[in-house]
Design goal:
- The complex is a heterodimer of chains A (112) and B (115).
- Chain A contains no helices and eleven strands.
- Chain A is an all-beta fold and 112 residues long.
- In chain A, strands 2, 4, 5, 6, 9, 10 and 11 form a seven-stranded mixed β-sheet that branches. Chain A has a four-stranded antiparallel β-sheet with strand order 1-3-8-7, with no helix packed on it.
- Chain A is globular, with a radius of gyration of 13 Å.
- In chain B, strands 2, 5, 6, 10, 11 and 12 form a six-stranded mixed β-sheet that branches. Chain B has a four-stranded antiparallel β-sheet with strand order 3-9-8-7, with no helix packed on it.
- In chain B, strand 10 and strand 11 form a beta hairpin.
- Chain B is mainly beta and 115 residues long.
- Helices cover 0% and strands 57% of the residues of chain B.
- Chain B contains no helices and twelve strands.
- Classes of the chains: A mainly beta (112), B mainly beta (115).
- The interface between A and B is medium-sized, with 20 and 23 residues.
Chain lengths: 112, 115
């Protein structure tokens, strides 16, 4: 258990509204990641962080922003949600950044 | 371009039968290799990983995987499947591109187990 929690676990929102998902870890690992999971695509990286205030884009970052003001929290924001952002979102951490990633339980987001 | 292929979208096996899930990757060097399992509504749990050394890797829940460099493959096996193994299985590779390490996932194989 890597001590990762995600909140909320489920959310329904409307197109055009802002949404923030939170990932919280208890073990002060440096590297954190946000993925989205869609049928037929596996998991795709949205953004990642390699330290407080240090973030970078993944392969599907359009429409998403992130922030990391504390080691333990990594926030994913959809500035104006669209139906194409309906997905399951997973947070992950890695201990040394070049090895194994451990995943949180996921957040299921539905954008109507 | 780097990629991971899991050619079987769905596999159905009878309980007690053997299982092999295929994974092939495209990368210019030997990547780090992983298998994860996802039960419905759950996150991904690490089954096993390969970084170097012995090409046959043992994991949790009785799973093993074999790295074959010549075939760019990392197939997952289990000699006798249990009903609780029904889940979705993801192969992933860890690669470094332009100094950045990242995971690339396959699209997953959904396993159904018949009683």
């Amino acid at each position: 258990d890597a001590g990762i929690t995600q909140s909320p676990r489920h959310k329904v929102t409307e197109t055009g509204t802002p949404v923030t998902l939170r990932c919280h870890q208890t073990e002060n690992h440096r590297y954190m990641y946000w993925y989205r999971q869609d049928p037929g695509h596996g998991l795709r990286l949205i953004h990642y962080s390699y330290g407080v205030k240090d973030t970078d884009k993944g392969e599907v970052s359009d429409g998403y922003s992130v922030s990391r003001s504390k080691t333990e929290d990594f926030l994913l924001t959809l500035e104006s949600a669209t139906s194409s952002q309906t997905s399951v979102y997973f947070c992950a951490i890695s201990i040394r950044g070049q090895e194994t990633q451990y995943f949180g339980p996921g957040t299921r987001l539905l954008v109507l | 371009a780097q990629s991971v292929t899991q050619p079987d979208i769905h596999i159905t096996v009878s309980e007690g039968a053997s299982l092999e899930l295929r994974c092939n990757y495209s990368y210019g060097a030997t990547p780090y290799l992983f298998w994860y399992v996802q039960s419905p509504g759950q996150g991904l749990q690490l089954l096993l990983k390969y970084f170097s050394g012995d090409t046959l890797v043992q994991g949790i829940k009785g799973f093993e995987a074999e790295f074959k460099r010549s075939q760019s493959s990392f197939n997952l096996r289990k000699p006798s499947v249990h009903w609780s193994d029904a889940a979705e299985y993801f192969c992933a590779v860890g690669v470094t591109t332009s100094g950045t390490y990242k995971y690339i996932f396959g699209t997953g194989t959904r396993l159904k187990v018949l009683a």
